[in-house]
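Appendix B, Record 12. Input sequence as logged:
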Amino acid sequence: MIPNPKIIFHRHWGFETVDRKMNRRLYVKTMVLPAVGLLLAGPMTGEALASSKATKASAGYVDHPAGSSKCSNCANYVKAGSMCQVVAGKVSPNGFCNFFSPAT
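Logged structural output:
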């Protein structure tokens, strides 16, 4: 028996006919849904990165130094914007937290 040449196997959708026309349902399935998924995934990755930082309360952050240990002497401190790589939000250059690591 000779196989029907109009039927092909597609690795994602199974068996399909070759002469199948592009209709609205197929267009939405193959073009629109993946595009919407990519658009929604972009903001979620930003939120996931922001939520990976510790809160000031959980880091034990205070606005005053602990001796010579202060944010401006820490390896995690980013001078541009007074930001920290570990603690969420702006931090004072004279602050201190439990994640202090001396800059080398």
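The domain at 53-104 is CATH 4.10.490.10 (High-Potential Iron-Sulfur Protein; Chain A).
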